[in-house]
Design a protein that fits this description.
CATH architecture of the largest domain: 2-Layer Sandwich
CATH topology of the largest domain: Pseudouridine synthase
Distance between the termini: 57 Å
Number of helices: 6
CATH superfamily of the largest domain: Pseudouridine synthase
Order of helices and strands: EHHEEEEEHEEHEEEEEEHEEH
Helix content: 10-25%
Shape: elongated
Oligomer: single chain
Largest sheet: 10 strands, mixed
Number of strands: 16
Strand content: 25-35%
Structural class: alpha+beta
């Protein structure tokens, strides 16, 4: 049972069923801490039993409190005065509604003015200082929810859910053409077109990739889809929808540019995941941005 909610301290009270286990067993199995984080805490003597440093082989009793002191990794990104829309925040993590045209992480082509720089500005204003750890990323022209961990434990906890496809990910997309079926599933493997290439394609030797879609509204020559990802490959929705002949409106990489919108009409609307420190299920939402709502309204009057 986790008994606190502080960013740099992870405490767990040993339950009766865990009586007689070793500290290492409780930390790995009951607290679900990765071997990498355990090694780091062990080497820094950051594992405590009843507030005292201990051996990981120490036997525990019901009621004992095991504490992991998480190292404080400071923010390293320059602060740029860019406002962010936070839809959820706790001591461990944040969920941000990223606008379109904002790069997530500094690159050679975008050394500043990114979401990471904006988060640094938020930290400055809110008197916080933590290393920004992105759990998921969105393309520059895709809007919607981005999850950020404030410490190594939260990053591990939610990233494992991502890797196990245990995070519900809901997107909205406006696509070219009118789908005849109300719903469907695209189960096609995805891989890079060429080694080192940004372009992805459906190919037999690719990674398993599953996308579910539902038609929300049909227009003249276009459709609005609600898309649920069962897996999370790079560009998965864009690749899969283009593969079935319904590329996303405005997607210059996998389809066509459009006079109706300046970017691909794709938005990460909702994510649901298990919160670090406990079993609470968190659902975060990000409303459709203005350019996609305007696109939908324009399609209704075609």
């Amino acid at each position: 049972m986790f008994i606190n909610d502080e960013t740099l301290k992870l405490e767990y009270q040993v339950e009766a069923k865990e009586n007689g286990l070793k500290v290492i067993d409780v930390v790995a199995t009951c607290m679900n801490i990765s071997s990498r984080l355990i090694r780091k805490c062990k080497s820094n003597h950051n594992i405590l039993l009843n507030r005292k440093k201990t051996s990981v082989n120490q036997i525990v009793n019901a009621g004992d409190v095991i504490t992991l002191m998480l190292d404080h990794d400071e923010n390293t990104f320059e602060a740029n005065p860019i406002e962010i829309n936070i839809v959820f925040e706790s001591a461990d993590m944040m969920a941000i509604n990223k606008p379109p045209f904002l790069v997530v992480h500094p690159t050679k082509g975008h050394p500043e003015g990114t979401l990471a720089n904006a988060i640094s500005y938020y930290q400055y204003k809110s008197n916080q200082n933590f290393k920004t750890r992105f759990i998921n990323r969105l393309d520059r022209d895709t809007s919607g929810i981005v999850l950020i961990a404030k410490n190594a434990y939260a990053q591990q906890f939610i990233s494992e859910q991502m890797q196990n496809d245990a995070v519900d990910k809901i997107y909205y997309a406006v696509v070219e053409g009118v789908l005849t079926s109300d719903r469907g599933t695209i189960n096609e493997p995805i891989e890079r077109a060429e080694e080192g290439d940004i372009l992805r394609i459906v190919r037999p030797d690719g990674l398993p990739s599953i996308t579910h879609y539902e038609v929300i509204e049909r227009f003249k020559g276009f459709s609005l889809l609600r898309v649920k990802l069962e897996t999370g490959r790079t560009h998965q929705i864009r690749v899969h929808l283009a593969h079935i002949g319904h590329g996303i409106v405005g997607d210059h990489l996998y389809g066509n540019v459009s006079d109706l919108i300046e970017r691909q009409a794709l938005h990460c609307f909702e994510m649901a995941f298990k919160k670090p420190r406990g079993s609470e299920w968190i659902v975060v939402n990000a409303p459709l941005p203005e350019d996609i709502t305007e696109l939908i309204e324009s399609l209704r009057i075609l």
